[in-house]
Amino acid sequence: EDVNMSGSLYRAKLKYANFKRKKTNSNPRHGPFHQRAPSKILWRTIRGMVPHKTARGAAALDRLKCYEGVPHPFDRKKRMVIPAALKVLRLRPERKFCKLGDLSNLFGWKHQE
């Protein structure tokens, strides 16, 4: 839930509210489903970047694991820093950013620490 997103929280809130309005006209229970948990939002974002309808893409998505926080087997391991993903290198200093956990909290995710 500590994933940084570029743009202000207000802008992200407007974009996600616009996404939440989209539903099946005849029966909204048929989808699309709008998840609130940060791990599910991240999973769906990555699914949009992967050719998930092919066997190769489906296998890649099966290997992807998203968690809230750091679960038990990984909390004892040494954390790695990916330099290409650092906010300092990706965003200019005057640009606004927000956290995915804050956006999820605004839309009804109840498990923020």
Describe this structure in words.
The chain has 113 residues and is mostly helical. The protein has helices spanning 9-20, 38-47, 55-63, 87-90, 100-106, and strands at residues 4-6, 97-99. It has a two-stranded antiparallel sheet with strand order 1-2. The model has no long low-confidence stretch (mean pLDDT 94).
Write the layout of secondary structure elements.
Blueprint: E1 4-6, H1 9-20, H2 38-47, H3 55-63, H4 87-90, E2 97-99, H5 100-106
Antiparallel strand pairs: 1-2
Q: Tally of extended strands?
A: 2
- pLDDT below 50 for ≥5 consecutive residues: which ranges? none
Spatially, the strands of the biggest sheet line up as 1-2
Order of helices and strands: EHHHHEH
Estimate percent helicity. Answer: 25-40%
Estimate the global geometry from the Cα principal axes: globular
Q: What profile does the largest beta sheet have?
A: 2 strands, antiparallel
Mean pLDDT: 94
Our estimate of the beta-strand percent is 5-15%
N- and C-termini, Cα separation? 10 Å
Class inferred from helices and paired strands: mainly alpha
Oligomer: single chain
Return Rg in Å: 16 Å
Annotation field: number of helices: 5
Question: Which descriptors would you attach to this protein?
Answer:
5 helices, 2 strands
Short description:
This protein has 113 residues and is mainly alpha-helical. The chain contains five helices and two strands.
